[in-house]
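Researcher: Quick test of sequence recovery. Tokens follow.
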């Protein structure tokens, strides 16, 4: 209820209580007043009558008495019911009653004490009542009789009622004026409050120009002034925050641009350094060392030192690469630009995979590894690769800071969560340093004496990954005893979008079928390298020429498009960040030109923007630095296929599944068509000619899809992948 109504209703309730109290007090006061009137007015009247009539009483002149009594009664007819006179012996001498006199008056008490001047008695006559005012008739000091003045009870009641009525009328008028005043007061109070409320609502919607208009200079006016000042300050603060946000956004964009630039400026030379170092090591081991006579100790020692130096170059280059990757990973996570492949995963499998990947670390330091994994541990939802990254990082840290003893890896189900712990017997962490271990670029311990290794980004990245999975990560440790890093993941999380199909496994199956021919050596295949960095072009060129490929080069996107149209190479290796025209624009032009659209394009860049690359139609997206063997394998696989796009058809009765899987496959470089029914699948397959059909088992069984498609010309060799709920 609004205060506009509360205040008048409150006043009304108070007035009603006051009226009720007034009526009660008035009734009581009128009774008291009537008694006083008896004592003063009516008693005096009775005494006056006694004084005037005492001689007639002495003379026993009843006729005169009766006439006198009727005269007295007639004068006071409205209130006097009757008058009676008794002699000293109590005999009734005269009265004013015509007809039968009430018998209650026959036994009236006529005797008075020496000090008793009058007597008032209430007498009930049937349902009515009267008041008997008795006064002695005196001759000197001797009582010669008594006069009884009988007052009507209704007269008193009417007098009380009239007084109450007048009181009520006055009270009603007062109440009416009080209500009017209350409403006026209510409006005076609630109007500024309503203005304040409405203005607050406007401000809550972001309209900071709203103001409270209260012209009065009372407390409400002062409140409005203070409120308006607060809003002005809020608007000013908000504008300051907006400016700060714009500056922060600009700084964030600058940071992203800086990271991209640093990434390009570091990764590009790193690719050359690592690539050429590995080429030198390979040629040294395969050509130089066998050709050099090692009888000379100096020569043998020099070759050994050269080989060792190259190993150091490769090792340090890879370490710097990991550091750059960590910085970029963390920046992308903070900016929300990481793509997550959420699916049902086995934490048991993740832990065992991480242990296998880090087995060499334990062998190198001679540490023992033990596991404690619950049998039948349920699956959870997560990005498998990212969770493996977390476990590997925790295990690597445990090994790094443990000189002797063991590392224990456990995975258990606790309170609806999967709890994974990595416990070591290493140097431990002081309790006051617990919060620091998850801060970016922070290293616990004394940096001058403990010589911490690493970038200080591994654990912050782990924290970001676990928190994205709606989990939590923490550490328990004791100096000189060891540390236990643990993280807990919920079994299910309604906020995480889950892919029903293991996309990575499916993509692997696609690769196995669509690119099934093993990569062949050159066979006079021509590769066009488009990169603005001469060292990168030379590195790739040497690696490809050693495999028998013919290589041509272009220094930017414009030259690359021209050469591709002129030379029609079998494959294009394309960088992204180049002057004049970047790789994405060049790829888009090539894929929309009938002359070049079938040429496979492999992007090799420091920029990690796979989705954009696949949207413009590239076939592979790799990042620098890269192993030459990996690059040659991908090139051989693409060339062996002979054309660019791989055609895949997705068939499922659930339209959302078809759409989701199609979008995911398209981002991986596949040309995709979708269908929701068997008939639609057959019609589209005849015109689309897919290399593979991903088919819902239910549709296949109900419509015998495989047999139908096998009899269509050109579809005899289609590869089928069945998908079912919960398995593939």
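Model:
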């Amino acid at each position: 209820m609004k205060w506009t109504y509360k205040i008048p209703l409150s006043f009304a309730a108070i007035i009603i209580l006051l009226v009720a109290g007034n009526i009660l007090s008035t009734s009581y006061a009128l009774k008291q007043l009537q008694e006083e009137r008896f004592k003063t007015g009516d008693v005096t009247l009775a005494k006056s009558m006694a004084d005037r009539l005492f001689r007639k009483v002495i003379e026993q002149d009843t006729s005169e008495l009766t006439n006198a009594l009727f005269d007295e009664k007639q004068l006071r007819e409205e209130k006097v019911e009757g008058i009676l006179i008794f002699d000293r012996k109590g005999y009734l001498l005269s009265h004013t009653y015509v007809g039968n006199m009430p018998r209650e008056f026959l036994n009236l008490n006529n005797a008075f004490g020496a000090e008793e001047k009058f007597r008032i008695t209430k007498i009930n006559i049937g349902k009515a009542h009267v008041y008997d005012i008795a006064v002695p008739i005196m001759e000197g000091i001797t009582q010669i009789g008594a006069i009884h003045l009988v007052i009507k009870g209704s007269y008193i009641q009417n007098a009380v009622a009239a007084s109450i009525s007048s009181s009520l009328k006055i009270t009603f008028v007062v109440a009416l004026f009080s209500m009017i005043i209350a409403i006026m007061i209510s409006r005076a109070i609630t109007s500024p409050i309503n203005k304040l409320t409405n203005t607050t609502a406007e401000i809550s919607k972001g309209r900071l120009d709203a103001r409270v208009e209260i012209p009065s200079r009372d407390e409400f006016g002062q409140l409005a002034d203070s409120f308006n000042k607060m809003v002005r300050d809020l608007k000013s603060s908000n504008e300051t925050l907006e400016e700060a946000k714009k500056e922060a956004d600009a700084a964030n964009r600058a940071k992203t641009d800086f990271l991209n630039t640093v990434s390009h400026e570091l990764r590009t030379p790193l690719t050359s350094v690592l690539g050429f170092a590995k080429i030198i090591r390979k040629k040294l081991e395969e050509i130089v060392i066998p050709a050099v006579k090692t009888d000379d100790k100096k020569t043998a020692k020099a070759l050994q030192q050269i080989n060792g130096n190259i190993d150091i170059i490769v090792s340090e280059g890879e370490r710097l690469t990991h550091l750059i990757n960590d910085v970029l990973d963390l920046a992308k996570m903070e900016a929300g630009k990481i793509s997550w492949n959420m699916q049902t995963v086995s934490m048991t499998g993740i832990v065992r995979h991480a242990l296998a990947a880090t087995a060499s670390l334990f062998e190198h330091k001679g540490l023992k590894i033990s596991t404690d994994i619950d049998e039948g541990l349920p699956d959870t939802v997560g990005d498998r690769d990212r969770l493996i990254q977390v476990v590997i990082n925790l295990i690597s840290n445990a090994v790094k800071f443990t000189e002797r003893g063991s590392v224990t890896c456990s995975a258990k189900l606790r309170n609806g969560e999967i709890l994974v712990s990595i416990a070591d017997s290493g140097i431990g962490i002081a309790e006051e340093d617990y919060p620091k271990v998850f801060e970016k670029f922070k290293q616990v311990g004394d940096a001058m004496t403990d010589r911490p290794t690493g970038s200080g980004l591994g654990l912050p990245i782990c924290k970001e990954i676990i928190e994205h999975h709606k989990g939590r990560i923490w550490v328990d440790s004791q100096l000189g005893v060891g540390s236990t890093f643990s993280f807990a993941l919920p079994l299910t999380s309604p906020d995480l979008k889950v892919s029903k199909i293991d996309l990575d496994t499916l993509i692997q199956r696609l690769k196995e079928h669509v690119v099934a021919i093993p990569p062949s050596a050159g066979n006079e295949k021509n590769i066009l390298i488009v990169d603005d960095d001469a060292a990168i072009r030379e590195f790739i060129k040497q690696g490809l020429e050693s495999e028998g490929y013919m290589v041509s080069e272009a220094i930017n996107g414009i030259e690359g498009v021209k050469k591709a149209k002129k030379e029609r190479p079998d494959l294009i290796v394309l960088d992204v960040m180049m002057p004049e025209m970047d790789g994405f624009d060049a790829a888009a032009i090539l894929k929309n030109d009938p002359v070049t659209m079938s040429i496979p394009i492999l992007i090799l860049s420091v920029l990690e923007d796979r989705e954009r690359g696949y949207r413009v139609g590239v076939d592979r997206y790799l990042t620098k630095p890269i192993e030459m063997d990996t690059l040659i394998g991908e090139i051989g696989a693409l060339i062996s296929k002979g054309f660019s796009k791989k055609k895949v058809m997705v068939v499922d009765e659930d339209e959302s599944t078809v759409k989701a899987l199609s979008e995911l496959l398209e981002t991986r470089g596949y040309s995709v068509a979708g269908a929701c029914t068997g008939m639609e699948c057959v019609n589209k397959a005849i015109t689309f000619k897919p290399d593979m059909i991903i088919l819902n088992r239910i549709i296949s069984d109900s419509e015998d899809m495989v047999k139908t498609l096998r009899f269509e010309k050109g579809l005899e060799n289609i590869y089928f992948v069945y998908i079912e709920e919960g398995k593939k």
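The chain is about 50% helix and 20% strand.
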